[in-house]
Write a sequence for this structure.
């Protein structure tokens, strides 16, 4: 077995199935959503450090729970002394309660998100895409489409949280 893929799940799930799994874990097993976000963030940071070592990172965040994962990832990197830049593509005022707490953690760790502009200068050697997750409907528009185009033009490694932004989680 390839060690690169040894710990990856062997099944694929629809976005509805993933939402239902989240609901079961949160509602029926009493695991707070923020705890699930933190676990996902810790796994992403560990994988990035394993693959890219002491690289610097730019984390692109949207305005949903996927953004919460991104803000936690950035905060964890900052706590480890890793250089990290956060670009807020989504409106932080629209964050849900868990994602708002994740943003607060990021800021407490010393990372202040910068708002997306078309002139955004990406400083990280590795990109973390935490913009649009499994809840995204339709193709990316506006700032999200522009940020995706920028990321694709950079020819840098990208870690996508949940699913690459703009990719339909059920149909590809």
């Amino acid at each position: 077995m390839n060690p690169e893929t040894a710990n990856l799940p062997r099944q694929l799930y629809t976005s509805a199935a993933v939402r239902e799994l989240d609901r079961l874990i949160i509602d029926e097993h009493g695991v707070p959503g923020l705890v699930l976000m933190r676990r996902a963030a810790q796994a992403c940071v560990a994988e990035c450090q394993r693959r890219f070592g002491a690289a610097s990172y730019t984390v692109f965040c949207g305005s949903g729970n996927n953004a919460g994962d991104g803000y936690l990832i950035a905060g964890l990197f900052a706590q480890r002394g890793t250089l990290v830049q956060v670009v807020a593509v989504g409106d932080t005022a629209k964050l849900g309660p868990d994602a708002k707490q994740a943003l607060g953690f990021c800021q407490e760790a010393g990372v202040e998100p910068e708002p997306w502009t078309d002139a955004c200068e990406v400083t990280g050697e590795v990109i973390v895409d935490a913009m649009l997750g499994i809840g995204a409907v339709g193709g990316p528009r506006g700032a999200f489409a522009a940020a995706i185009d920028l990321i694709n033009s950079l020819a840098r490694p990208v870690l996508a949280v949940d699913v690459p932004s703009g990719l339909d989680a059920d149909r590809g």
